C-alpha cells in the first residue's frame, strides 16, 4: 500500500456529544425567533462570512479532499468550492427580490381584498449530507438556509473525516453555535438529531436512508427536502454526435471516479453506432487519464473509491456481472489496497446482474445496445424514477418522445450533469430519487414557508354570513356558474 493510501486509512471521525446537540438545538430557538425579522443585508452578511471562510481555507479544503479519497485538486475547485460561490452570488444578486412578498390578484369571490404571499423562515433547519461532495452538499444548502433566515445544524458524512473535521472548524470559526453548528459522527449522531423537532430537514443521500429520515420527520410533521440517488439512464440514438457523446459522458461519469449522484449510470446506445461509440469512449478515456488501462492508475485526475467497503461493493458488482456472462470492453483493473477501480466499460449484461438493479456509484459503465426506442423507454419506466436522464440525439422527434414518455428529476439533452450547475433551475429528484428541490430561489423556498395572506376591506363572502336571506340564497344559487 502506498503512503497516500495509508493516510486515507487512519483518520477516525470525531463524535459529537449528544447532550451538547440537544443544548445547541434549544439555544437556536431564540435565534430562530430573532431571525424572523432579519433583513436581506443581515442574511447576506452571514453568507459572506461563510464565503470568506471558505476562501481563507481553500488550500486546506483541497488537502482534505485529497486525504479522504485523493480527489483531484481541480475537481475540488470545480465541484466542491465553485458551487458554494455560485449559490452565494445568486443570493447576493436576488435575495431582496426572493424575500419580497408577492401580490396576487383577487379572484371573483375575493373582490375587495388584497392578497399576497409572504416568505417567512421555516425555523430551525437540519442539513444531513453525504460523502461524495461533502463540502458542496453541506455548505451549498447552508447558503440557502441562511438566505431564508434559518439557524442550522449540519451533520456531514462520517466517511470523509478529513473534510468533515475541516468543515467543523470552519463553522466554529465563522458562526456562534446558536446560529450555525456542525456535529460530526456516525449514524447515532444523525439519530439524535432526527429525534429533535426541527422545522425543516434537508437531506442528501441514498433513497434507503431518505426513507428513514422521512419517517423520523413524520413524528414531528417536519417538512423535508430529500435529495436522493438512483440509476440515471443515458440514451445515445442513431443520429447522435458520437464523439461529443463520448467526451461528455466520460467526463460526467469519471469525475470523482463515478461517485456522483447524477453520473450516467448505464448507457443505451443504438446498435447502428454502438461499436463507434465504444471506440470513441475508449479513445476518450485514454486521452483523459493516460493512454492505457495500466496508466490510468497513475493519473492524478482519477479519485479513489471512498473506502474499502465501497471498493468491495463495486468490485462485487463487477465480479457478479462477469460471472453471469457480461463482457468487459475496457478496464477491469482493481486494486483493493489502493481503493482503486479503473474506468470499466461492460456489455452483454444479463437482466439479473446486480449491476442492472443497484445504483452503481462507481467507475463501472454498462453499455446496452438497442434497436427500438420503445424498448428503452419501457425499461426506464419499469425502474424507479431516476435522478437524471440524458439523451444524445440530433432528432427533435426522438428527444420529444423520450422527454414526454419518461420521468426523471432533471435531464440534459446532448450534455451530462451540467443541469446541477444551472442556478436558475430547480435541482432535485422525483419520488424514489427525491422530494423537493434546491439551488438558487428553489433552495431559498425550500427553507421558507410561503404564507398566504388576505387583507380585506370589502369582501363578497360577507354576503354569506348568517342569517341567510332571500338575496344571499339567490346569489348562492347562481355562484357556481358565475365565479
Ligand atoms: P447515505 O444515505 O448512506 O448517508 C447520507 C447521510 O446520512 C450521512 O451523513 C450518514 O451519516 C447519514 N446516515 C446514514 N445512515 C443513516 C441512518 N440509518 N439514519 C440516519 N442517518 C443516516 O448516503 P451516502 O453513502 O453518504 O451517499 C451516497 C448516496 O447519496 C447515493 O445514493 C447518491 O446518489 C446520493 N446522493 C444524492 C445527491 C443528490 O443531490 N440528489 C447528491 C449526492 C449523493
Overall shape: globular
Radius of gyration: 25 Å
> And the CATH topology of the largest domain?
Aldehyde Dehydrogenase, Chain A, domain 1
Distance between the termini: 76 Å
Question: Which runs of at least 5 residues are low in confidence (pLDDT < 50)?
Answer: 1-6
Main pleated-sheet profile: 7 strands, mixed
What does this 3D model show about the protein?
With 483 residues, the protein is α/β, with parallel strands linked by helices. It has two domains: 3-228 and 434-451, Aldehyde Dehydrogenase, Chain A, domain 1; 233-421, Aldehyde Dehydrogenase, Chain A, domain 2 (3-Layer(aba) Sandwich). It has helices spanning 3-9, 18-35, 40-56, 58-69, 73-99, 136-148, 161-174, 187-194, 207-220, 242-254, 274-289, 293-296, 308-323, 373-382, 396-405, 440-446, 470-482; strands at residues 102-104, 113-121, 125-128, 152-155, 180-182, 200-204, 223-227, 233-236, 266-270, 327-330, 334-335, 340-341, 344-347, 364-370, 388-392, 410-413, 434-435, 448-456. The strands form four sheets. A seven-stranded mixed β-sheet has the order 10-13-14-9-8-15-16, with helices on both faces. The longest helix has 27 residues, at 73-99. The radius of gyration is 25 Å and the shape is globular. Nicotinamide-adenine-dinucleotide (NAD) binds next to helix 8 and helix 9.
Amino acid at each position: 500500500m502506498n503512503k497516500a493510501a495509508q493516510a486515507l486509512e487512519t483518520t477516525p471521525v470525531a463524535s459529537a456529544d449528544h447532550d451538547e446537540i440537544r443544548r445547541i438545538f434549544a439555544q437556536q430557538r431564540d435565534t430562530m425567533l430573532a431571525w424572523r425579522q432579519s433583513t436581506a443585508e443581515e442574511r447576506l452578511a452571514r453568507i459572506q462570512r461563510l464565503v470568506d471562510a471558505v476562501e481563507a481555507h481553500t488550500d486546506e479544503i483541497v488537502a482534505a479532499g485529497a486525504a479522504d479519497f485523493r480527489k483531484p485538486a481541480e475537481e475540488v475547485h470545480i465541484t466542491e468550492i465553485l458551487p458554494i460561490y455560485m449559490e452565494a452570488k445568486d443570493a447576493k444578486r436576488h435575495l431582496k427580490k426572493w424575500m419580497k412578498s408577492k401580490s396576487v390578484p383577487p379572484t371573483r369571490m375575493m373582490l375587495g381584498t388584497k392578497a399576497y404571499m409572504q416568505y417567512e423562515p421555516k425555523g430551525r433547519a437540519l442539513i444531513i449530507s453525504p460523502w461524495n461532495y461533502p463540502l458542496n452538499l453541506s455548505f451549498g444548502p447552508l447558503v440557502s438556509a441562511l438566505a431564508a433566515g434559518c439557524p442550522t445544524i449540519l451533520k456531514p458524512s462520517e466517511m470523509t473525516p478529513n473534510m468533515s473535521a475541516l468543515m467543523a472548524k470552519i463553522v466554529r470559526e465563522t458562526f456562534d453555535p446558536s446560529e450555525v453548528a456542525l456535529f460530526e459522527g456516525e449514524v447515532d449522531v444523525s439519530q439524535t438529531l432526527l429525534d429533535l423537532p426541527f422545522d425543516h430537514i434537508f437531506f442528501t443521500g441514498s433513497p434507503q436512508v431518505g426513507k428513514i429520515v422521512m419517517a423520523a420527520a413524520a413524528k414531528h410533521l417536519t417538512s423535508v427536502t430529500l435529495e436522493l440517488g438512483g440509476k440515471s439512464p443515458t440514451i445515445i440514438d442513431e443520429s447522435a454526435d458520437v464523439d461529443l457523446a463520448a467526451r461528455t459522458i466520460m467526463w460526467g461519469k469519471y469525475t470523482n471516479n463515478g461517485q456522483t449522484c447524477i453520473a450516467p449510470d448505464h448507457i443505451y446506445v443504438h446498435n447502428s453506432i454502438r461499436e463507434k461509440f465504444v471506440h470513441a469512449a475508449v479513445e476518450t478515456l485514454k486521452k483523459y487519464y493516460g493512454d492505457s488501462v495500466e496508466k490510468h492508475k497513475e493519473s492524478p485526475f482519477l479519485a479513489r473509491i471512498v473506502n474499502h467497503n465501497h471498493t468491495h461493493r463495486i468490485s462485487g458488482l463487477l465480479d457478479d456481472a462477469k460471472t453471469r456472462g457480461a463482457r468487459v470492453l475496457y478496464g477491469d483493473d482493481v486494486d483493493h489496497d489502493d481503493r482503486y477501480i479503473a474506468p470499466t466499460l461492460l456489455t452483454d449484461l444479463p437482466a439479473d446482474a446486480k449491476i442492472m438493479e443497484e445504483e452503481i456509484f462507481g467507475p463501472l459503465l454498462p453499455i446496452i445496445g438497442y434497436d427500438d426506442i420503445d424498448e428503452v423507454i419501457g425499461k426506464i419506466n419499469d425502474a424507479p424514477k431516476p435522478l437524471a436522464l440524458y439523451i444524445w440525439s440530433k432528432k427533435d422527434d426522438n428527444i420529444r418522445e423520450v422527454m414526454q414518455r419518461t420521468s426523471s428529476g432533471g435531464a440534459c439533452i446532448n450534455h451530462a450533469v451540467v443541469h446541477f450547475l444551472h442556478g436558475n433551475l430547480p435541482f432535485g429528484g422525483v419520488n424514489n430519487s427525491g422530494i423537493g428541490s434546491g439551488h438558487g430561489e428553489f433552495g431559498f423556498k425550500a427553507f421558507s414557508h410561503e404564507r398566504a395572506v388576505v387583507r380585506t376591506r370589502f369582501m363578497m363572502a360577507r354576503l354569506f354570513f348568517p342569517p341567510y336571506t332571500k338575496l344571499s340564497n339567490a346569489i348562492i344559487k347562481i355562484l357556481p356558474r358565475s365565479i
